[in-house]
Amino acid sequence: MIPINNTRKNIARAKAESIDLTGEKFGRLTVLKKAEPIIDKRGTRNSAWECQCDCGNIKIVRQSQLVHGKTKSCGCLQKEAASSAKRTHGLSGQCGRLYPLWKSIKYRCYTKSSKDYERYGGRGIVMCDEWRDDFKSFYDWAINNGYKEEKTDKGLNVLTIDRIDVNGNYEPGNCRFVTNEVQARNKRDSIRDNERFKICPICGKRFEISQRNGSKTCSRKCGTELKKINHPNTKDYIKICPICGKEFNAKRGGHYNQAIYCSRECKNLSESPIWELNGESHRVVEWAEITGINAHCLLHRKDLGWDIERILTTPIRAKRGEKN
To answer: What are phi and psi of 32, to 5 degrees?
Structure first.
């Protein structure tokens, strides 16, 4: 008895061999005639057809590959698709230095390892989506907005890209191509003509500055006078100690705002708790002087749970070989 599976395979094979594909077109392939069957590794006979590709090549293709659309050319279609995938903008050889410029802008705006990232991406400066994702768009804008492939005698580019607003992004409305001289005057630290001259606040003389955060006065003498006005005098450093009421110079060591007490002793007194015994109230450091017991010992006794009378009246135990 013949197995059912083999019977089905024979019927399917017979139907496949009875199909005539001559003259039909599949993708770029036009069927010319029936070809010798292709025998695979398992010994199965597969119907095949001789086809001509639009590019002129002749190729033998299995019938199943043609019918199911798995083979559409001699291989030229796949090569063209691979070549198109590798081609990013199709401007190689004619974009000049615009493509390296486009890459360098993206690098300093988005790559944290760039040495210029802090001055660009670190300050929030980015490239607009229109340019960031499409070099062709950046190329077309540059060509239509004054870009030229010109260099000086020293090999430097005559025109460079410049942001009109130095704090703005790289986008069509904020960029232009200018000379290096114009770009140098448009830096954050450059001085505009209307900011180049100042009036001295001491003598009223008009003077010129060389950098944006330059001198505030016309001379060193006026600068000294301005410093005296803006800084407190020695009298302003005098404070009164809240513990002993004594006046003292609060600028000791150059830390004016940190000095509160006139001495370490007064500071210790301010941090020492107040104990009361027999109607007398003193701080712990003062009780230490009265009783002759150091303040550390008195505080330690308090931590042990002793009452105030026992703390202040119990003498210190003598060391071995000594008397109390």
So the answer is: -95, -50
